[in-house]
Amino acid sequence: MKGFEALNAFWETFRSIFPLTAFLVFIQLVVIRKPIENVKEFVIGFILSVLGLHFFLQGVSMSLFPIGDSVGSNLVVLERKWLIIIIGFVIGCFGTLVEPALKALALEVEEISIGAIPNKILIHAVAIGFGSGMAIGLLRILNGIPYLKVAIPLLLLVILLSFFAPEQYVSIAMDSASATTGPVNIPLNMALAIGLAKVIKGADPLLSGFGIVGLTSLGAIISVLTLGILTRI
Questions:
Q1: Percentage of the chain surpassing pLDDT 70?
Q2: Domain coordinates of the chain in residue numbers?
Q3: How far is the C-alpha of 224 from the C-alpha of 23, rounded, in Å?
Q4: What pTM did the predictor assign?
C-alpha cells in the first residue's frame, strides 16, 4: 500500500511538470522551428527536475509543515509577546536567506546593474523586510487586529516610498517580493502562523492564520524601496 501511495505521489509530480515541458518543446520545435541543442542533457534535466520536486515536496510535508505548526502552536507558552514577535522575525529572515528564487533574482540584478547592486546586500535587505512583515503578521494574530487595518497602511507606505525611490528599485522591489514567496518560506511561515492562530483564544485560524504571506511580501517591498532611497541619499 505504501509503495502504491509513493508511486501515485511521484505520478502527480510528473503530471504537474510534464504539460509545461511539453508546451515549451512544442514552441521550440514547431513554432520557432529550432532544434533542442542537447537532447540528452535536456532529458536528464527533466528527469532530475521531476525527482527533485517530488523529493522536495515530500520533505516539506514531513518536516517544515509539522515543525512549523508545532512551533506556532507552542509559542503561546512564552508569556512575553515581544519574544514571540522576535522569534517570528528571525524565522522570516533565515527562511528568506535560503530562498533559491531570491538568490537567482539577486544574481541577475547584480549582473544587469554591473555590480552596482550587490546580490548579498539585496538579499539581506529583502530578508529584513520579510522578517519584519512576519513580525507584524504575528503581532496582528496575537492582538486580534483586523487584516485591513494592517495591510492598508503598509500599502500606502509602499505607494509613498515609490515616489522617492529610484525607478529601478521600484521594479526590483516588486520582483523581490514575489521571489520570497518560494518553496521554503511559504510552508514554514504559513504553518507557523496557522499553528499560532489555532491556539489563540477567540482567534479563527481561517481569518487570522492566513494573510501572513501578503504582509511579508509588503515588508520585502518596503525594505527594498528603503534601500533604494538610502542609495540615492
A1: 90
A2: 2-60, 63-232
A3: 35
A4: 0.77
